[in-house]
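Hello Y.,

Per our agreement to keep a running log of every chain we model this quarter, I'm adding this entry. I've kept the format consistent with earlier entries: sequence first, then predicted structure.
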Amino acid sequence: MAASGRRRRLTRRDVLIRTAAGGVVLGGGAALAGPLLDTADAAPSAFGYRDDGRAYVITTGADLVFKVDHRNGDLTSLVYKGTEYQGYGNRNSHVETGLGASSVSIRRTGDTILVTVVHGTMHHYYAARRGENNVYLWTNKADDSITATRYIVRVRPGLFPNNDPDSWDARTDSLIEAQDIRRKPNGTTRSKHYSNQRVIDYAYVGWSDGTTGMWMVRSNHEKASGGPFYRSLMRHHYEDGAGLYEILYYGENQTEPMRFGLQGPYILAFTDGAAPSPALRHDRIETSWADGLGLAGWVGRAGRGRVAGVGISGRSGDHAYTVGFANAAAQYWAEADPATGRFQSPYMLPGTYTLTVYKEELAVHTTTVTVTAGRTTALHTLKITADPSRTPAIWRIGDWTGTPGGFKNASLMTTMHPSDARARPWTAGVHTVGTSSAADFPCYQWADVNNGLKIRFRLTPQQLASGHTLNIGITTAFANGRPRIRVNDWVSAVPAPAKEPTTRSLTVGSYRGTNHTYSYAIPAGAWIKSADAYQELTIDIVSGSGGTGYLSPGVSYDAIELVP
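Predicted structure for the entry above:
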């Protein structure tokens, strides 16, 4: 800087850096004082940025202006068409609950303005594109030295409708579990957990009031965990404000370890009330403009490969099939064509992956595949080899899908608490094979709610002459719950618990676990020796862990069958 103290005007090549201590330096060196103005930011609506002394103010050249605090990288303002959307309770939008003191820099490259936030080993990015009402975000969690499970956009109260399963009003709704599930006066239940959808089923989440839409368009989740059917909270809406989430790693009922690296872009998009443009979807977005931004961990399309399969044999026409790809570094999936079984993966990072074919959510075939940058790996027809539905059964309740689908209350439990007034009673009469419906058998069973579920059935004289195997498939378990069975006067041993997540599951909208099957060899001596007599099976949930009500040990059912 000149001895006179005059500041030189910044050019578009300059990079402004705010250090963790709050100082300002040019990317090339000398310290500067006072607000720093980009020459392109001559008018409020022009595409550009400026420094207001506390935050970088980015104008997109459309209807959106946003601010990033250059002390910690928080998003502190989101003004769309003159209305402020960011913030509630003096809280900002940020990674996790805020990174704290960070080094924050800004630069412009052509039609892109990029803000870089560095906090220890973590890099977080915000980008604006000329003429777009979008904020593009990436988060690189390089290791586990910094907790980073989410990015949360905090939204002012009263801007959007508030009557969804993830909304509540603490002034009228009472807490019923932990600090995150409430019951309304009409007996229905609400929680941020009930915003969940399977990752494979959604591309964006948000709200619209008819004239303004505010959306979080998710990334491809290649660095997240849990696979295509994982469910996690996606938004919440309370009387004092709302939140939109991009989940980086979520521990609730999680079945996989954390992955590290760059996740994104995920996009905060404003619209005129409509859904976000399909061109922003993770599987359609064109991102070549990001190739030259220098994002830590960024791999463009040229550095990726794909997998394509000509078909899958052994499928059932009644079910959807998904092909998943996973290793320690990344995860992907592709939906198989319902008619042919053909599939093609998204663009993937190079490496060797476990390929899993899922019938609904049940793994029915696995193999490995290697992905090479710049190439599509072609696969011959995959043959399903492990579908338990193909095993002849004496009787079966439910279908093997890796879900509790078809059982009582199953269609409700991802969007409400089991105590919700809309759920049918969890207790059940005796289920009689051949006349009762799976829709009358509870999808969940708890030790302190509906223990002692009973199934009765008849056997032919030939079947009475030998022992048989009872298989009980569960999708997940809570608090080490597992089934112990009684057949007439014969009682099984208590099996070892399956390795399942240790967090809440059945009460927070998640049935997804490790899909374990318990098998019990029932001896011929257990049967009542009459073809006219009913055999009575009783299922009790047992555990060495405690808990009461819906937080007592429990399981989610996939299928129950007796096989020769």
